[in-house]
Specification:
Shape: globular
Helix content: 10-25%
Radius of gyration: 22 Å
Strand content: 25-35%
Distance between the termini: 37 Å
Largest sheet: 7 strands, mixed
Length: 324
């Protein structure tokens, strides 16, 4: 939702001109946030962030990515042995990485989060994301043994080889051997997977520091890096082990990487990004309060992720914290 105050639009006299001057910057911020949410939905595990310190009775929980949240946002905190606790983000401290969660957007009480612990994999989710979130790449490509779904398209994965992606155990990957590990995983998928040989290694952008260190140390590879979009960076590697195209995604789960055949992955829908309108065709919703009128513009993203041929894909799971 984008929010425009009439008092800001009136400030320069001409309402239309003021709106057009404010809109570009607001749109940039808005599209960046929408891109982030879509990336998290498909390349994450369904959550927005993971707890790094146990929650407190005072409504405080420390997470790995506090910048993904917005003041007033409704969230749910859950872990492996508790029921979800819902509340609203009323405070964000980027430096301490703490979220403050209460039971109302204003003048609320602290939500008791002391039951949600790091040992039980406490995470913070968007409202209703656990019950009605989209399929993630991980849930589609991982076997049920490795934490994925047991079926896809309504068919049991183990019964049909075409529904089985190649799963790579990354628990032995280390920061010092990361580039070699990625190369091996990439070519294992090329050898064992089907489909196009023009596959891409997709990884968390935070791994870039370790990849850069490996490139500097080995001198075996020629690398070309380019920025290809919001939160994305592409690396073209050429060396004695062959050629590999890698794409770092900022909003990717830190314990996973993917080897993807993009020719068999689709977003399916009839609208994708869509501005909401009312029955009269109005794109603005106006609210009048004591501080003046406020105009709201609502935009949603509607699409389903479809992997037409999971057997053409590969996924690396259980990668440890490479920064530890």
């Amino acid at each position: 939702t984008m929010k425009f105050h009439n008092k800001d639009l009136r400030r320069h006299g001409d309402m239309k001109r003021s709106y057009l001057s404010i809109l570009p910057q607001r749109l940039r911020q808005f599209t960046e946030r929408m891109n982030e949410r879509v990336s998290l939905s498909y390349f994450g595990d369904g959550s927005m962030a993971k707890a790094t310190v146990d929650g407190t009775s005072g409504g405080i929980i420390t997470v790995d990515f506090p910048q993904r949240f917005t003041i007033g946002e409704k969230v749910a905190v859950d872990d492996d042995n508790s029921s979800a606790a819902e509340g609203y983000v009323v405070g964000i401290d980027i430096n301490t990485k703490q979220l403050h969660i209460q039971d109302a957007r204003s003048a609320g009480s602290n939500v008791d989060l002391s039951a949600y612990t790091v040992a039980q994999n406490a995470k913070v989710y968007l409202d209703n994301a656990q019950a009605d979130g989209p399929d993630t790449l991980a849930s589609i490509l991982l076997s049920s043994t490795n934490g994925g779904g047991s079926s896809y398209f309504g068919y049991t994965k183990t019964t049909y080889p075409a529904l089985q992606a190649y799963n790579i155990d990354g628990s032995g990957w280390t920061a010092s051997s990361l580039l070699d590990d990625m190369y091996k995983g990439f070519y294992d998928v090329l050898d064992l997977g089907k489909g196009s040989l023009n596959k891409k290694m997709v990884f968390p952008l935070r791994w870039m520091r370790h990849i850069s260190t490996s490139l500097e140390a080995s001198k075996r590879y020629e690398a070309k890096t380019t920025e290809v979009g919001y939160g994305l960076r592409k690396i073209q590697l050429i060396g004695p082990d062959g050629q590999m195209e890698m794409i770092g995604i900022r909003d990717c789960a830190l314990d996973k990487a993917f080897v993807l055949d993009m020719d068999s992955i689709y977003l399916c829908g009839n609208s994708f990004f869509k501005r909401d309108t009312d029955a009269n065709g109005n794109e603005f919703y106006v609210e009048r309060n004591t501080t003046g009128k406020v105009n709201y513009v609502d935009t949603c993203f509607e699409a389903g992720l479809v992997v037409q041929a999971p057997s053409h894909q590969g996924i690396v799971h259980s990668v440890p914290d490479l920064d530890a």
